[in-house]
Write a structure and sequence with these properties.
Helices cover 43% and strands 15% of the residues. With 382 residues, it is an alpha/beta fold.
Length: 382
């Protein structure tokens, strides 16, 4: 199935031969015994600084992307599918890509992008178009996850499952629920929406004694940019964090427009540090978060009271926030940064602030990384 494109009934959409099955599996999956689950703690490098450096993805995690109408989540999905890999691990890596209720143009974009970059070689694609029946949309993620479970737990592969767009899946669920005259819940969605999403998301994870794993990145568009809408709200409850797109960053032309402050990866501390990324990762991440939050506050203060109201240190923080967005977040959809490059950019940005402000980093790491960059900058000025 690797390297192939299918519809929801597993009929080839790429002009290739039909699949002769080795096994037949129930697409609803088998429940994983909680006691058999292994803890996610291996770093997955996506090549995207805002994720790798600040909201790290860990093997076996489910980390959704909360986008909004008109934002480039399709490009981010394609970038992650192209670039993602497990560091320090020789096991085979595969991507299962499920497109739910997307337009023909979007489907064509994904297929062309995967073929052009060679990502198709390690990918299985399930495409469900917007004009396909709603009942097929409900089956698509189940088909994709069953293929992922087979590759992970029968073939010992590390599988990354990308599903876009979960909002279309939930709309199909609402449509079928209404047709069956079921009692509606919040905003007309069926009362079992939470249970339904949980049965899908909880198919991610690692099992003790098995080499393979399933990591999920579900992508959803928040209706009316509303985080409290039932779909993002329930998804946030079930999953281990969220990556949130910011419309303001997109308006500035920054891509991918990941708003790092409200974004969160609850397992990031488990996947970073010595032997996984680098020993200075935790301090670097915490300091960047704190400095960016302070910098944004200073920019808001400047907009209200004027630049004269800021202290010299506040101005430094405001400059830091601008440079952080320009150099760290804005990397484009075709730049693949290693974790070392991401950390290096982080350290270079931190040198915009005085050493006395580095309150979240151990002195030994400041001596190893901060001081040499600062000294070089001082020399270049001379």
């Amino acid at each position: 199935m690797l390297g192939r494109v299918f519809d929801v009934m597993c009929n080839p959409k790429d002009g290739g031969a039909p699949i002769i099955p080795e096994m037949k599996l129930d697409i609803n999956g088998q429940p994983i015994n909680p006691a058999a689950r292994d803890y996610p703690d291996e770093f997955i490098q996506t090549g995207i600084s805002a994720i790798d450096g600040l909201n790290t993805l860990v093997r076996g995690q489910k980390l959704p992307v909360f986008s909004a109408s008109g934002l480039p989540h399709a490009e981010l999905a394609a970038q992650i599918a192209r670039q993602a890999k497990v560091l320090n691990n020789d096991d085979k890596f595969a991507v299962v890509f499920a497109a739910l209720g997307i337009t023909y143009e979007e489907a064509e974009f994904f297929m062309q992008d995967f073929r052009k970059t060679g990502a198709i070689e390690r990918a299985v694609m399930f495409i469900n178009l917007a004009n396909d029946p709603a009942i097929e949309r409900i089956s698509t993620p189940k088909m994709a996850l069953t293929a992922a479970e087979y590759l992970a737990f029968e073939k010992g592969m590390h599988v990354l499952v990308i599903m876009t767009d979960i909002t279309n899946y939930c709309e199909a669920l609402r449509e079928i629920s209404a047709a069956r005259k079921e009692v509606p819940g919040r905003r007309g969605y069926p009362g079992y929406l939470y249970t339904d999403l949980a049965t899908m998301y909880e198919r991610a994870g690692r099992i003790r004694g098995k080499a393979g794993s399933i990591t999920q990145i579900p992508i959803l568009t928040m209706p009316e940019d509303d985080k409290t809408h039932p779909i993002p709200d329930l998804t946030g409850y079930i999953t281990e964090g969220q990556i949130i797109f910011g419309r303001e960053l997109y308006k500035k032309g920054y891509t991918p427009p990941i708003d790092v402050l409200p974004s969160l990866s609850r397992l990031k501390q488990k996947g970073i540090g010595e032997g996984k990324t680098r020993e200075d990762h935790s301090g670097n991440m915490n300091q960047l978060f704190a400095a960016y939050a302070k910098g944004k506050e200073c920019k808001e203060l400047s907009a209200i009271l004027g630049d004269a109201a800021l202290t010299p240190l506040d101005r430094q923080y405001a400059v830091f926030a601008e440079e952080f967005e320009k150099k760290y977040i804005n990397q484009g959809f075709y730049t693949n940064r290693t974790i070392e490059e991401t950390l290096q950019i982080g350290w270079e940005l931190l040198t915009l602030l005085p050493r006395s402000e580095m309150k979240r980093i151990k002195d030994k790491f400041l001596e190893m990384y901060y001081d040499p960059i600062k000294a070089k900058l001082e020399e270049d000025k001379k």
